[in-house]
Write a structure and sequence with these properties.
Largest sheet: 5 strands, antiparallel
Radius of gyration: 13 Å
Number of strands: 5
Order of helices and strands: EEEHHEE
Number of helices: 2
Strand content: over 45%
Shape: globular
Length: 75
């Protein structure tokens, strides 16, 4: 099965977070919006500093990661 890889870019630190693996962009956006609405974490406290990106694909059948140019999905 293929799933997408996503990462959040911290604009202040100028680094991407560790990737997470989700089914599609809609589920990634839902997870990101949940983080943005939770003021108990840095993303929720400073949402303007973070951008969600799709960064590739994971195929668990062949054990292969396929990267792509980062695609901005939400800030």
């Amino acid at each position: 099965m293929k799933v997408n890889m996503y990462s959040v870019m911290d604009l202040k630190a100028e680094v991407f977070t560790k990737p997470i693996f989700l089914q599609n962009d809609a589920t990634a956006l839902r997870a990101f919006m949940s983080m943005v609405n939770d003021t108990e974490n840095a993303i929720g406290r400073f949402p303007e500093d973070y951008v969600l990106y799709r960064i590739g694909e994971w195929n668990d059948i062949v054990g292969c990661v396929k990267g792509c140019d980062p695609v901005s999905l939400c800030n």
